[in-house]
Amino acid sequence: MQETNSSSLVEEAHSYTVKDTLKEMSIPESLQASLMERVDRLGLVKEIVQTGAAIGREFTYDLLRATVDAPDSQLRNALDLFVASGLVSQDGEIPAAKYLFKHALVQEAAYSTLLKKPRQLLHARIAKTLESGFAERVKAEPELLAYHYEQAALPSPAVDYWHLAARRAAERSANIEALNHFHKALQLLKDLPQGLERNTLELELLIARGAPLLSIKGYASDEMEQNYSRAKDLSQEISDPVPKFRAIWGLWVCRLVRGQLAEARGLAESLLALANREQSSDLCVEAHRNLGTTYFWLGRFEEARTHLLTARALYDRNQHRSHALLYGQDPGITARIYLARTLWVLGEVEQAETLALEAIGMARELDHPFTLAFTLAFLSWVYSTFRNANRTLELTDEAIAVSTRYSFELGLAWATASRGWALAENGQAEGVERLISGLSATRATGASVNNTATLALLAELYLQKKRFSEGLATIEDAQKIALTQGERFWQAELFRLKGELLLGQSDRSLKEAEQCFCKALEIARDQHAKMLELRAATSLAKLWTSLNRLDDAKSILNLVYASFTEGFGSPDLIEAKTILEQLVE
Q: How many other C-beta atoms lie within 10 A of the C-beta of residue 427?
């Protein structure tokens, strides 16, 4: 066989940058002609070359041997000639040898010599060979089978293998890869006959795609809404309640995080009704967690506690461990996280911290990155509420690291905002800008829930820095969100902070500030939000003290403080006790 020009050919191929897949690649005509001529010169070896090219840029002797219909001696001689041509390299000795096309363009030139029908038949033969004789490889790389069946124009098995590949990628939190595989499967569905079987398969794919979609695109993304709206429509055609539940769940979480709380509440109530009807603990643990979560944001804290406690009681770590993959995060951990924040608001301070620590321990043990990132980011809000800047920094640093590694945009945004608050609390100048940056990134994902609390943190920093006008503008922004969304969980704090900012801005604002504190107190009492009631009473007591209304100040603050049975080491209760002691003197 002629050896001339083989090295120059490979060098010419290497001068081109390959960005497309082999299927989409376009080779310059001059190079195509040179490569085709080189492949054609291989004569009888050409079929071996074509088969190798169809297998992939790299192929193994054992797979090639099982695929081609040729005696072993002929195959070995052909491979020796192929290697001698300079177009491929060999690694290892037969039968464990691997072969690599020295450039993707060389592979494409060989592949392009196949006509459409023989090419499809060859891909089908490769796929069936893998299925019948390479079980471990199929198990490890189902995307190989998916690709070959797709190229063989056999969409049904191709969809099945893309689906399998997507689920395997999702299980190891390779969510971007999983989404690519799901996309290919859904695209190929268009080639299947219309009917219930096709629609059921599409529903299964959409439901399975939900968790990686949530992780990468965020709860509130348009992609999430489109995915689950289509799933809900398809679920009407079947009797199985589980896909129906999960389709409604996807719409619920999208509405919730967008701040569309009235709609979210309706969907959460529908989920609980469906779960109770089916008497399924798998569905009930999710439904109670969902409704408890929704009630929390609505400021209905006692109802939130009831449902979250029920979710925690129903949760079985072994039975429900798979929910992290099905719903994007673990329900037992999420119930504890929300319960921690709820109990703090209700004045059960020590139990709140116990639950927070439990949730972190469980998230680390679960080894599910998104659940861990969510846990760390959400609990950073809890610890900022505790006014614990150092602990907030620890949690956000880790949340940012996990979110960055796995491309969790929303987790990164939430953690960045909380970290900004903690940095500012510790006296670092860049803290405020970091908080604003995190809030902007959060809004860019479409997420709106909890933004009132984040804005309250920002307003409090402005208060500390005596930037009163900016603080009042920030509170106005937060109150507009609360009014529009019905997000009442932090409404008492917004009024209290507005009062504090008005006092800082001008002594002439005393009456308006007093009204704000009284409104905060009223809202907190109506919500049974004891910690927020204490904060409002503390601000009011300080104002009345400055006006020499000492008995009123002592009475209002003592009434709330005396109702506590725990948490006396927390900053809020320490401050209230200090003021009371001063009033007694």
A: 8
502-539 per-position pLDDT tens digit: 999 887 789 999 999 999 999 999 999 999 999 999 99
- Residue 59, H or E segment: strand 58-60
As given in the structure block, the two tokens for residue 82 are 């192929």
Q: What is the dihedral of CA 572, 334, 460, 389, to 10 degrees?
A: 70
Q: Pairing mode, if any, of strands 88-91 and 98-101?
A: antiparallel
Token pair for 353: 């911290």
Tell me the pLDDT tens digit for each residue of 49-70.
889 999 999 999 999 999 998 8
Sheet holding 58-60, edge to edge: 58-60, 98-101, 88-91
Is there a contact between 102 and 10 (Cβ–Cβ < 8 Å)?
A: yes
Please tell me the distance from the alpha carbon of residue 53 to that of residue 51, in angstroms, as a whole number: 5
**Structural domains of the chain, count:** 1
Tokens representing 125 are 């033969």
32 within some domain: yes
Q: Is the Cβ–Cβ distance between 324 and 368 less than 8 Å?
A: yes
- Give the up-direction half-sphere exposure of residue 562: CA atoms within 13 A in the CB hemisphere: 7
Looking up tokens 């689906």 gives 163
Q: b/e string for 504-539 if b means 16 or more Cβ within 10 A?
A: bbeeebeeebbebbebbbebbbebbbbbbbbbbbbb
The reply to whether 372 falls in a domain is no
pLDDT one-digit tens code per residue, 425-475: 999 999 999 999 999 999 999 999 999 999 999 999 999 999 999 999 999
Please give the Cα distance from 205 to 192 (Å, whole number).
Answer: 14
Gap between the Cα atoms of 341 and 381, Å rounded: 9
Q: What is the CATH number of the domain that holds 77?
A: 1.10.10
Is the backbone of residue 206 left (phi > 0), alpha (psi -120 to 50) or beta? alpha
Q: In this predicted structure, what is the pLDDT of residue 84?
A: 86
Domain with 10, as residue range(s), is 1-114
Query: Has residue 87 been placed in a domain?
Result: yes
With H, G, I as helix, E, B as strand and everything else as coil, classify residue 90: strand
Rg (the chain; Cα; Å): 31
Quote the percentage of the chain above a pLDDT of 90: 81
Q: In this structure, is the dihedral angle defined by the CA atoms of residues 561, 564, 565 and 567, taken in order, positive or negative? A: negative
Distance from C-alpha of 444 to C-alpha of 431, rounded to nearest angstrom: 20
Q: Which pTM does this prediction carry? A: 0.87
Could you tell me if residue 370 is inside a domain? no
Is 371 within 8 Å of 324 (Cβ atoms)? yes
pLDDT tens track for 74-100? 889 889 888 888 888 999 999 999 999
Please state, for a pLDDT cut of 70, what percent of the chain lies above it: 92
Q: pLDDT value at position 11?
A: 46
